[in-house]
Design brief:
Layout (H helix, E strand, L loop, with lengths): L1 E8 L2 E8 L14 E4 L6 E6 L2 E3 L7 E10 L5 E8 L5 E7 L18 E3 L4 E7 L7 E10 L15 E13 L33
Parallel strand pairs: 3-12, 6-12
Antiparallel strand pairs: 1-2, 4-5, 4-7, 7-10, 8-9, 8-11, 11-12
Length: 206
């Protein structure tokens, strides 16, 4: 976008141009690498989370599906379902970059321990979106590894994994509005009115 400002001084026209340059997203995210990858039938058959429903079968070692997205609201709980390859049992791990620093940290891992899913089976990871999640668009990473030597590393452990696949998606965190209370249910609410006294109930979003 170019904005022209004209300042007339001594019959001279001065034009100032301001160029707004958008930042490039995902510039610094690590790319997992496998030695064999999906070549022997080790892959993520499908992922479902909110509006994301992606069944692609075997892809590359790492696949960019960030054109697919879903909105997650802080304070709410969601289920992410992975559909495993019909060929082998695989271990799964999932991260969401809540603070948008392009690094998947341990506290951003949705399943504390690797989820083992049998061949052709499904696995579900239940998680709650933290209230500290930054608003905006961030990244979800789903990884499967065949018999990892330890907890799955979001960057591929330096290319030491032999078999598996990684998939990235986009997650949208909405900005908190003035009426965003983060309330999912109210079990009971009792109000006692004495002598018709007028009063106000104020709920503060903390």
């Amino acid at each position: 976008m170019i904005i022209h400002l004209r300042n007339f001084f001594r019959n001279t026209s001065l034009i100032l141009s301001f160029f707004l340059i958008a930042n490039t997203a995902w510039a610094d995210y690590c790319t997992p690498d496998y030695i064999t990858g999906t070549g022997s039938g080790d892959y993520i058959d499908g992922v479902e989370l909110g509006d994301i429903s992606n069944f692609t079968g075997a892809g590359d070692d790492w696949n960019d599906y960030t054109d697919l997205s879903t909105t997650l609201v802080p304070g709410l709980t969601y289920d992410l379902t992975v559909y495993n390859t019909p060929s082998w049992s695989e271990s799964y791990a999932v991260w969401i970059d809540w603070d948008q620093d392009e690094i998947f940290t341990e506290d951003e891992r949705l399943n504390p321990t690797d989820l083992t899913v049998a061949a052709g089976a499904t696995g579900t990871i239940t998680f709650t979106v933290p209230f500290t999640a930054f608003p905006g668009t961030t990244r979800l990473r789903v990884m499967c590894v065949y018999f990892p030597p330890g907890a799955i590393d979001p960057c591929g452990a330096g290319g030491t994994y032999y078999y598996g696949e990684a998939e990235d998606y986009s997650i949208v965190i909405p900005a908190a509005g003035p009426y965003d209370l983060g309330v999912t249910s109210i079990d009971s609410l009792a109000i006692h009115i004495i002598d018709r006294i007028n009063f106000n109930i104020i709920i503060t979003n903390i």
